[in-house]
Design goal:
Elements (H helix, E strand, L loop, with lengths): L1 E10 L2 E11 L4 E5 L6 H8 L6 E6 L2 E2 L5 H6 L2 E4 L11 H8 L6 H14 L1 H5 L10 H14 L4 E5 L7 H16 L3 E6 L2 H7 L2 E6 L2 E7 H5 L2 H7 L3
Parallel strand pairs: 3-8, 3-9, 6-7, 7-8
Antiparallel strand pairs: 1-2, 1-4, 4-5, 9-10
Helix pairs in contact: 3-6
The protein binds adenosine-5'-triphosphate (ATP).
The site of adenosine-5'-triphosphate has 13 residues, from strand 2 and helix 1.
Length: 233
């Protein structure tokens, strides 16, 4: 579904991604784990056209490298960014509606809004509350919900558990699994390696801009090097 070939990014003299190859198969959960500064966000920002890269980004076989972010999102490749970036002065409903900004299928948008409230009843209860007054966990729910309103075929999540209490974080991972069961492919970037590898069909380890390991989530979860470097064992 999504194939990155020899993807490379420079920020001035910093070579942040050094020719990485990644594949995301239709219907799967794929995760990329790595330490701070490894280049994880850079990869997602390149896919969505927010950062300039070289190499190929093949989406359904078509090279979208250099395409407009607006067109990339409209084609179903949707990013939930690190740090949520919700609009604090807009209500929950308005924030969610902005996720559907480029869509014209209003009856489907309504259905997706209902579906979002089924996944996140907490958001429905707070539908008229301003985004900035939500708790950190609720803001993350809102960011994921807004992503879903864009009708993604591939939902990319950048550190969705960052700064959340363990129980809320677990809930977010459960929801990611649920979203995937409902037919959306997921590309997940996480520092919480354990939770990410547990739900991933396939996983990659990124170290200073290079992919150093790739295998099923289960195999990496049991790999000694991963356990030492990323699972604190
Ligand atoms: P984290 O988990 O801490 O968010 P990350 O794996 O997502 O880290 P990136 O944010 O992709 O890492 O950063 C990769 C490298 O590129 C880092 O060394 C960072 O300092 C550098 N970098 C990122 N964005 C820029 C930028 N706009 N200008 C210059 N350097 C940048």
């Amino acid at each position: 579904m999504l194939v990155l070939k020899n993807l490379s990014v420079y920020y001035g003299g910093i070579h942040a991604l050094r020719g990485i190859d990644i594949e995301v198969a239709d219907g799967k959960i794929v995760t990329l784990i790595g330490a701070n500064g490894a280049g994880k966000s850079t990869m997602l920002n390149s896919i969505t056209g927010l950062v300039k890269s070289s190499g190929d980004i093949l989406w359904d076989g078509k090279n979208i490298s250099g395409s407009d972010t607006k067109d990339i999102v409209a084609s179903g490749l949707v990013l939930v960014p690190e740090g949520r970036h919700i609009f604090p002065n807009l209500t929950v409903y308005e924030n969610l509606s902005l996720g559907a900004y480029f869509r014209k299928d209003s009856s489907r948008i309504k259905q997706d809004m209902e579906r979002c409230f089924e996944l996140f009843p907490r958001l429905k209860e707070r539908i008229h509350q301003s985004g900035g007054t939500l708790s950190g966990g609720e803001q993350q729910m809102l960011a994921v919900g807004r992503g879903l309103l864009a009708n993604p075929r591939l939902l990319m999540l950048d550190e969705p558990s960052l700064g959340l209490a363990p129980l809320v974080s677990k809930m977010i991972f459960d929801i990611i699994r649920e979203i995937n069961k409902n037919g959306t492919t997921v590309l997940l970037i996480e520092q919480n390696a354990h939770a990410a590898l547990e739900i991933a069909d396939y996983a990659y380890v990124l170290e200073t801009g290079l992919i150093t390991m790739r295998d099923t989530g289960k195999s990496l979860l049991n790999d000694d090097r991963v356990r030492k470097a990323y699972l604190g064992e």
